[in-house]
Sequence to fold (740 residues):
Amino acid sequence: MNSPENSSVDRVHAVLRDTFGFASFRPHQQQLVDGILQGKDVFGIMPTGGGKSLCYQLPAVVADGCAIVVSPLIALMKDQVDAALSNGIRAACANSSMSIDERTAAARAYGGGELDLLYVAPERLAADGVLERLRHCPTGAPAFFAIDEAHCLSEWGHDFRPDYLVLGKLRDAFPDVPIAAFTATATQKVASDIATRLQLRDPVRVRASFDRANLFYEVRAKRDWETQIVEFVRSRPGQSGIIYRTTRKSVEATAGLLNANGISARAYHAGLAASERSATQDAFIRDDSSIIVATIAFGMGIDKSDVRFVVHGDIPKNIESYYQETGRAGRDGEPSHCLLLYSPGDAVKIRRFCDDIVDDAERQRTLDLLREMERFASVPACRRKSILHYFEEDYTEENCGGCDYCAGEFAEVDATRDAQIVLSAIARSGERFGAVHICDIVTGAATAKIRQFGHDLLKTYGIGKGQPKAYWRSVLDALIAAGILKVSDDTYGVPKLTEEAWEVMRGQRKFARHEDTRTEREKTSSRRGAAAAVDDIAYHHGLFEHLRTKRKEIADAAGLPPYIVFADKTLRQMAAYMPTDNAQFSQLHGIGTHKLATYSKAFLEAIANYLQQHPEAARDRQRLTAATPPAATIKRPRGETYQITLDMLRQGLSIEAIAKARGVVMSTVEGHVAQLIESGEEINWKSIVPAETASLLRNLFEQHGSGALSPIIAAADGAASYGQARILRAVIAAESADES
Ligand code: ADP
Ligand code: MG
Fold:
């Protein structure tokens, strides 16, 4: 017998499967869903693509009555309603873009108890008498309020909307109705602001990791941006992507460049007429135009889930913007690529704009954030770790496997002598000058400032002429990143020497920097990274394209964006499993009962037709096993660098010897080994991790779980290295995969 609680749990899972067509919850979703269904307030802070919509849509289906969802943008609202309707959820919206008749129809449906979800714009709630009418609605109070993009409530956030302030009245007007708040951007300050303004009552709080595991981050020196961008896009045919540029002029130039090279792309910036902008946005959402070149005016309010790449042609103004903009890639959880083209000169241009900021403190803050972004772009280090560090999240993986640095694109080289040159220029000029001036001294620039301070007389003046300024800047940046130089907190950000700096100068300490090992060719035609890993199942490409065309046809006829009809992942599964009946079809990702009823006939037919015309395709059919298709696993890219390590291992070289021969540290090689094991390679790890260490690690993993490595390392108390723990974790995972 089911207790009432159990049956509600069953109901939640049934709705997840039957309405949404998903096999399981994403991390944290269930906690939020359960909280709402228990009548509690909830507060979910989850990154873009984390799956926030489901957290309120699912309880809206399960609970009695209609949930009211507040969402800031009309375009977004329409998309969300379309997506809900396509899953058979009774949804409608009310906003100022609708005619009076349409709004009246929505109000009537609400009043008649015919809705599960009503999306409203905040300005609707603020309108005269609306809250009053809601309160006296004959069908009772709303089931709950969901506030999407809740950071719009906070003046500290990056997207404050005065309209949202009306939400502060909800609690008093509806003391018994739960409030659920969701946002993807919350510093502590914004988060507590949201909770206060909404008067949340002891909410179920969830703060998910901001790690976007399916995004591959890559930074490349911007040399010949025309070739770099054209080649990058060309190597990804058919994929949707956004290319960000800073100015309208460069947006136009880049779009023109792509079109001239036979790649259809549309431009988007604030200088275009509103009608043109919305047409472009629509074309992108509907897959009529897969590439958009835009200023940062583009993106907010776009839920297109299958954006496969985001390119930054210029440096963004801070890490937060970079994270938000790259975050528009891969909402569907599929591998996606983020490329930043970096040139120190671009930051100089932004810095000039900063001169217009009147408020001193504000200007300084803006400059500091830009400086941090520059460091992110110029210092070779795990990109993921740097981003998460910005959000005060500790990322403890030794190798993220999802950025250029961790993919082994950089080699460690000794740079002690060059470090000494930079440090000595700083010491001799009295630790009073900024990075630009220091590099001027080292390269022997003839500036007025150099003459004014007599720096052309210093011993280090011009000693580094043989290398460009950018090189010396990168050495200086690397010294800051390594903590050997500390930047002063005042407005000038002057590099200051630390004790370690003196040790380097005295030759008591070595300094290594990372050098980009990619050849020019590789750099411009990068097909590595996520792009290579998109296919998590082997599927028939011809059939996939055929189904894609079918999807576009059906979507256009229904006036829907294709990704709302089916995710790419669903199409790939169709092209892999080639279902022949409804029972098989219903097992695919994202197919609930409604989509099954609406689309299965058309797609089963399309598959059958294709197989009739291309009988050989049937050979590629994968077996559809168990009740659910395999969960998507992100296959990590396996570049050349892993192959080299593998070859050397096969030749019997030790980790130490490989590290030495390749000019990298041992932990890098150990990271390669772990990834090779994870990707199913047979490796004689017993010669790498001694039996004693291995059994200690096995015990520790048993006790602490095999998630984070840091507790294991701490408990091992010096008896095992990070690299060894990483390898053993891979071994354990591979063993348990073999057993199951
Ligand atoms: P957010 O609003 O947090 O940015 P969305 O709600 O738009 O994210 O969801 C992002 C994508 O993830 C959507 O394509 C959605 O269908 C998908 N998704 C959400 N929950 C799940 C789940 N439990 N299983 C599989 N896919 C999911
Ligand atoms: Mg959302």
